[in-house]
Amino acid sequence: MRPKYKLLTDSQWQSIEKLLTDKRKRKYCLRKIFNAILWVCGTGCQWRNLSSEFPYWQIVYYYFNKWKENGFFEKVMSKVVRKERMRQGRNYAPSAAAIDSQRIKRSPSINIETGIDGGKHINGRKRHLAVDSQGLPIAISVSAADIHDLVGGFDILWRIEKNSSGMKLIRTDMA
């Protein structure tokens, strides 16, 4: 059973807020908007079914798209991973990574970038992941399921280079 969703703590929000470059005055609190995005991603509900404790779903969805396009979520993920590595007493930048992929069945509401994987006979999408030795994400890429692992792995290499300059070893499976 999944634990109940928890709002961001003050210290978590302070570290995320530092990454926001636009400091103008707003009608809606960005912390509430970020919490709403995490709530949608954590519960799997549709945007239109967003709880009334958050701003209107259109506003939350607007910021989700805006932050997705400008790479804000990647910056947050990178900062969280670096902090966790430092907390564990490791260097902030990983020196080794492992790359693999996973197929996901298509949901009825998704119709972009889908395909049928010939080997597994799954109609859907494929996520390519690069993780460090602790299992923390370094880079994530999503493609159609009919994209070969070799192509998806090549696509994820530039993401690894952008997030981790000191990479010495990358492990992968046969593809």
Automatic annotation (TrEMBL):
**A molecular function (GO) term:** transposase activity
Q: Which InterPro entries match?
A: IS402-like_dom, Transposase_11
Q: Name one GO biological process term.
A: DNA transposition
Domain Transposase IS4-like, by residue range, is 94-173
Can you tell which superkingdom this protein's organism belongs to? Bacteria
List residues of the Insertion element IS402-like domain: 8-77
Q: PANTHER family in the record, alphabetically?
A: PHP DOMAIN PROTEIN (PTHR30007), TRANSPOSASE (PTHR30007:SF0)
Q: What is this protein called?
A: Transposase
Source organism per entry reads Chitinophaga sancti
Provide the taxonomic classification. Bacteria, Pseudomonadati, Bacteroidota, Chitinophagia, Chitinophagales
